[in-house]
From TrEMBL:
Any single Gene Ontology cellular-component annotation: extracellular region
Plastocyanin-like domain mapped to chain residues: 30-192, 300-416
Protein name per the record: L-ascorbate oxidase
A molecular function GO annotation: copper ion binding
Organism (species): Aquilegia coerulea
Reactions that this protein is recorded to catalyse: 4 L-ascorbate + O2 = 4 monodehydro-L-ascorbate radical + 2 H2O
PROSITE patterns xref list: MULTICOPPER_OXIDASE1 (PS00079), MULTICOPPER_OXIDASE2 (PS00080)
Length: 443
């Protein structure tokens, strides 16, 4: 859970020399989004791993560029629940300020490293034109507000064409979980105004459980014309059922009834050097019972722990159907942003209830699905993705919510590892392979 403790940053990849972006902007702004707890991550981990489990609860603050407010809000005068923060520029709670000139277009880069929170960003009086998602261009689409799930990144264009004698709020609210945290706020400061808090009302976010609103945004994100298209057929389709479970009284998350426990020896070295006992050699199931009722708590909540991997052959088209379900408590199903290492994948579609081969397969979007590395599953829904195994390695595919991964919500793809010639020493520095590094360095 290092990310929850603050180990994160943004990496901006420019277009290659001589290449042009398919949109124009005059300036660039960045907002790195996160959430923050007062309890340290070690205590959080102990709570999550205890029986009974102690949940981390909602964050104390929502952060933008590492800054947030606590016990007060920049917009305190607009809400009866919080007091007004004193806006001293040197105060720890001083808000981030985005300085803009009137009548310009800015590219606003957004990325979420949240530990838990799904977010919605809105800018008072300004629309956003979405142009890029997870490093891939999308069909430009105008939005009033945008959802950002943990692990995702976006670029939106904003045009500073509003009354230049005013400043505006950039507000970041929580989605999908009953919020107990005031929105994170940033000031959009039109030059040459002083950077005081805007007197205009805060932008309004949709209700935290307005899933149709979130689904409408997700369905508007489509690949820009001319983007790489997915193969029209798949070689292998893996179904991953997400459930909350119990193992000897401990609360876990499982995929096809297997809760991931990462081994202490890195997979790459274990597989390459054929180490016995470094991880479970039985592969996890590729499917789940057709009888499973995704609308109800698991009828048998017990599950198993494993460090097994899905072995993927080189050059194949793999579909994954992520299937959400009811958690342990009745009438609860949560959002999970799934993130894949080593690949971008095409998002072929989202749907309600249980995925059905007959009903849903033919309606998947093969025409202009967006390429992403993170995709959400909505409560009680499914999400279909496709990727091609063209990048040998051992890749985690997991819920980007830190406590959920800690509780086992992930799988491992071991992709044509035999094609990897040399493993960097840094990748085999611990567990059983650490000895091999030492031996190597002595010879
Ligand atoms: O993993 C989780 O545990 C809690 C709850 O299900 C039990 O307290 C919660 O909201 C999660 O997302």
């Amino acid at each position: 859970m290092q990310r929850s403790a603050g180990l994160y940053g943004s990496l901006i990849v420019d277009v290659a020399d001589g290449e042009k972006e398919p949109f124009h902007y005059d300036g660039e702004l960045n907002l790195l989004l996160s959430d923050w707890w007062h309890q340290n991550v070690h205590e959080q981990e102990i709570g999550l791993s205890s029986n009974p489990m102690r949940w981390i609860g909602e964050p104390q603050s929502i952060l933008m560029n590492g800054k947030g407010q606590y016990n007060c809000s920049l917009a305190g005068h607009l809400s009866k629940k919080t007091s007004l923060c004193k806006l001293r520029a040197d105060a720890q709670c001083a808000p981030p300020i985005l300085h803009v000139l009137p009548n310009k277009t800015y590219r606003l880069r957004l990325a979420s490293t949240t530990s838990l929170a799904s977010l919605n960003l809105a800018i008072g009086h300004h629309k956003m034109v979405l142009v890029e998602a997870d490093g891939n261009y999308v069909q430009p689409v105008t939005l009033d507000d945008i959802d950002i799930y943990s692990g995702e990144s976006y670029s939106v264009l904003i045009t500073t064409n509003q009354n230049p004698s005013m400043n505006y709020w950039v507000s970041l609210g929580v989605r999908g979980r009953h919020p107990a945290t005031p929105p994170g706020l940033t000031i959009l400061n039109y030059h040459p105004n002083t950077a005081r808090p805007p007197s205009s009302p805060l932008p309004i976010h949709a209700a935290w459980d307005d899933y149709p609103h979130s689904k409408a945004i997700a369905n508007k994100i489509l690949a820009l014309q001319g983007s790489p298209k997915p193969p029209t057929r798949y070689d292998r389709r893996i179904y991953l059922l997400n459930t909350q479970n119990k193992i000897n009284g401990f609360t876990k998350w499982s995929i096809n009834n297997v809760s991931l426990a990462l081994p202490s020896t890195p997979y790459l070295g274990s597989i390459k050097f054929g180490l016995k006992g470094a991880f479970d050699h039985q592969s996890p199931p590729e499917n789940f019972s057709s009888e499973y009722d995704v609308m109800k708590p698991p009828s048998n909540p017990n599950s198993t722990v494993s460090s097994g991997v899905y072995k993927l052959e080189f050059g194949k088209t793999i579909d994954v159907i992520l299937q959400n379900a009811n958690a342990l408590n009745a009438n609860v199903s949560e959002i999970h942003p799934w993130h894949l290492h080593g690949h971008d994948f095409w998002v072929l579609g989202y749907g309600e209830g249980k995925f059905s081969e007959e009903k849903h397969s033919k309606n998947l979007n093969l025409k202009n699905p967006p390429l992403r590395n993170t995709v959400v599953i909505f409560p009680y829904g499914w999400t279909a993705i496709r990727f091609v195994t063209d990048n040998p390695g051992v890749w985690a595919f997991h819920c980007h919510i830190e406590p959920h991964l800690h509780m086992g919500m992930g799988v491992i793809f071991a992709e044509s590892v035999e094609r990897i010639k040399n493993i960097p020493q840094a990748a085999i520095g611990c567990g059983m392979t650490a000895k091999m590094v030492m031996n190597n360095s002595h010879t």
